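Q: Start with the shorter request: fold the first protein.
A: Done. Sequence, then structure:
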Amino acid sequence: MIATRERKHGERLAHTKQGRVLPVSAIYGANAAGKSTLIEALATLREIIIGARRPGALLPVFPHLPYGNRKPSKFTLEFIVKETTLIYELEADKQHVIYEALLILKGKQEEYIFERDDNGVSLYGALNDNKLATSYANVIAPNETYLGAIGSAPAINEPLATAAYDWFNRHLIVIYPHSKFVYLPARFDADEVFAAAMNAGLTRADTGISGLALEEMNANALPLEDKQLEQLTADL
C-alpha cells in the first residue's frame, strides 16, 4: 500500500511520517498464484487475535506445506493507526502461540510495546508499570493472543495496544465473493445519496446494470407456498 514516486493523483494519497499511502490497491495474478491465500491469511490473523475460544481449542492455522507440516505459521504485518506505524508479529501452530510482539516504528528504529516467547510476556514503556497488564501476562492462555487480551480490555488504558486491537477488530474487514450484506437494500432505500452513488458506481464499472430500484410488493402476492412465506418472514 506504499505509493511509488509517481506524482499523478498525489492529492488522493494519505500522507504519514513514513511516506505516502495508497487509498486503494489491487492484487493480480494467474490462477493458483496465491491471491486468495493472502486474503485468507489476513482473515485468519484477524480471527486469531479477536476470536474467543475455549481453553485447549485449536487455532485456525494451517501448516506451510513446502516447509513441512510441523512448521508453525508466521505473520508480520505493518500498519498505521493515528499516524503511528505499528508492527505486529505472530508465530503459532494449531495448539498455541509460539511468539508474539507489538512494536512501534520510529524512523528506522523499532521499539517494543510487548514481546512474548517461551519465557513469557515482556512489557515495555507504559505497559511495564501497568499492574493489570502484568496480571494478564501471567495468566495468558496458550491459544490466546496477548494483543487480544489487553486490547479488548478498556481498563488496561494503553492507547497503542487498544488502537492496534481496534485496527484488527474494526478496520480490517475481509469481504469475500460469497459475503452477504442483508442491510444493503435497507440502506439503499433510506439513503438517497448512497443509492445515487451506488447506481453511478455500477454504471462506471460496466456491470451491465444501469441502476437499481426497489419496488414494494405485498407478500401474499408472491408465488410462494405458505411454509415458504413463513420461512421468508422468519428470515427477515
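Q: Next, the second protein, separately.
A: Sequence, then structure:
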Amino acid sequence: MAAVARATVLLVEDEPAQRELLAYNLEAEGYDVVTATNGEEALAMVAERAPDLVVLDWMMPHVSGLEVCRRLKARAATRDLPVLMLSARSEETDMVRGLETGADDYVSKPYSLGEVMARIRALLRRTRPAVVGQVLEWGDIRLDPETHRVTRAETLLALAPTEYRLLATFLERPGRVWSREQLLDRVWGRDIYVDTRTVDVHVGRLRKVLGRSGGADPIRTVRGAGYALG
C-alpha cells in the first residue's frame, strides 16, 4: 500500500546559500519543496497552487515576509495555511509583531536546522497529520499511516494505493469540500496529468470498499464543487 502523499513546503528565502541549505534538508525530511526568491513570486505561487506550509524569511526586498504573511492571512482561501517565519530580528517585540501579523510560529536566525524541522512537523500535525504519522479517525473509520492499516467498524479494509491516499486526504480535513482539481494535486501529484474524471472513478472505488462493512456511505458529493467526508 502506498504512502500518504507528501506535504508540499513553499520556501521563501532571497539568500541563495540559506535557500539551498533549507531546501536540501526539507527534501531529506521527505517533503516536496518549491522555492521563491521574493515576496511577489511567493504570492503568485500560492495563488496558483497553495502549498501545505510556507517557510518565510522576514527580510526581503520589495515585498517583505511580514507583508506576505499579512496578505495570506487576510484571504479566506489561505487564512489557514501554516506560516513559519524566519528572521534575523530576535528582539521579543519583533517576534510578537510577526505572530500578530498571523505567523503560526517564529524562529530567529541563526537557527538550528533540527529546531526548524521540529517546528515544521508540529505545524503540519494540524493540517497534514497523516504525513507526520498521526492516526486519523472519523466515525468508525480508522487509518494508521505508520502501519498502513485501514479499518471500518474494526473490519480490516484492503485499499489500492490511490484509494488509500484519497481516504487519507478526506480524513485529514473532515467536512472540507475538495474540488476534483485539488484532489488531483494532493493525491496524484502536481506534475502528473490526469483527467478530472479519474477522480470520480477512484471515489467510486473508495465508496465501494468502505461500503463492504455495511455502513452508510460517508463521502458526500457536492454538486458542482467536489467531494467531502461527512
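Q: Describe the second briefly.
A: The mean pLDDT is 89. The chain has eight helices and eleven strands.
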